[in-house]
């Protein structure tokens, strides 16, 4: 099977800072890849580069065998094909929950309002907030808003979902309600790249763990191997700090 995503020697600088150092990996259709590592290791930049929210200095990123487009309509299409869920929920404050979910499919995918609404309600039901469809985002908890953001991304029927620390802005009691939705998506075969500090999610849902440090991809392994016998000293050090608490 051809990989859905190919990263080939991807390099990125912010001024003097070398944030991505020749990153190469592939992601297969239906695979769940969790990216972990210390803060400042380049995880979020990698995520944003896949959606071309960040440009890269060297290397190649291919989705379905096609290089990332530079700009214009091809880039808009890429953004529709690659869903992204951020730390902050980025919902339209002046639109209802359901309107947030249906706007993209109507405007970008050309769906009818009735079709988009039907699908939107199915997705809100899937993430457990169908009963909030007519509310404004500000009336929802953080966990509910993030689940709406996930539904909004899914409504575009993306080939790939990117999650950039989707639970880091949430209160502890809301984290699991979002992670539970993500575990469900993983079981349904949604191709996902998840940047997260939630090691339980990595263990439960990931097919593969990518460990990044100082802009480099230090290690990639199954969750079982990574958490029980990491091969690099950098990963051992990282895990010793986070798994002992």
TrEMBL record:
Q: What is this protein called?
A: ABC-type polar-amino-acid transporter
Tell me yes or no: is Nucleotide-binding among this UniProt entry's keywords.
yes
Q: Known EC number(s)?
A: 7.4.2.1
Q: Which InterPro entries does the record match to this protein?
A: AAA+_ATPase (IPR003593), ABC_ATPase_HisP-typ (IPR030679), ABC_transporter-like_ATP-bd (IPR003439), ABC_transporter-like_CS (IPR017871), MetN_ABC_transporter-like (IPR050086), P-loop_NTPase (IPR027417)
Specify the species: Pseudolysinimonas yzui
- What membrane topology was assigned to this protein in its record? Peripheral membrane protein
Record's GO cellular component terms:
plasma membrane
What PROSITE patterns does this protein's entry cite?
ABC_TRANSPORTER_1, ABC_TRANSPORTER_2
SMART domains associated with the record: AAA
**Catalyzes what?**
a polar amino acid(out) + ATP + H2O = a polar amino acid(in) + ADP + phosphate + H(+)
Sorted keywords for this record are: Amino-acid transport, ATP-binding, Cell membrane, Membrane, Nucleotide-binding, Transport
Major localisation = membrane
Q: Which domain of life is it from?
A: Bacteria
Family (UniProt)? Belongs to the ABC transporter superfamily.
């Amino acid at each position: 099977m051809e990989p859905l995503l190919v990263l080939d020697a991807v390099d990125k600088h912010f001024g003097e800072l070398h944030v991505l150092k020749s990153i190469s990996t592939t992601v297969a259709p239906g695979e769940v890849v969790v990216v972990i590592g210390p803060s400042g290791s380049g995880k979020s930049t990698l995520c944003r580069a896949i959606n071309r929210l960040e440009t890269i200095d060297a290397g190649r990123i291919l989705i379905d065998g096609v290089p990332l487009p530079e700009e214009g309509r091809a880039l808009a299409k890429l953004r529709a094909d690659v869903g992204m869920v951020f730390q902050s929920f980025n919902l339209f404050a002046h639109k209802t929950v359901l309107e947030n979910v249906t706007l993209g499919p109507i405007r970008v995918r050309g769906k009818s309002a009735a079709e988009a609404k039907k699908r939107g309600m199915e997705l809100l039901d899937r993430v457990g907030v169908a009963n909030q469809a007519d509310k404004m985002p500000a009336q929802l908890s953080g966990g509910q808003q993030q689940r709406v953001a996930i539904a909004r991304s899914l409504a575009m029927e993306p080939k790939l979902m990117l999650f950039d620390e989707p639970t880091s802005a949430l209160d502890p009691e809301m984290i699991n309600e979002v992670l539970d939705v993500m575990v469900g998506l993983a079981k349904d075969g949604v191709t996902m790249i998840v940047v997260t500090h939630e090691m339980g999610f990595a263990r439960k849902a990931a097919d593969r763990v990518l460990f990044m440090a100082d802009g480099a991809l230090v290690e990639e392994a199954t969750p079982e191997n990574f958490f029980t016998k990491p091969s690099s000293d950098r990963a051992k050090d990282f895990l010793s700090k986070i798994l002992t608490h």
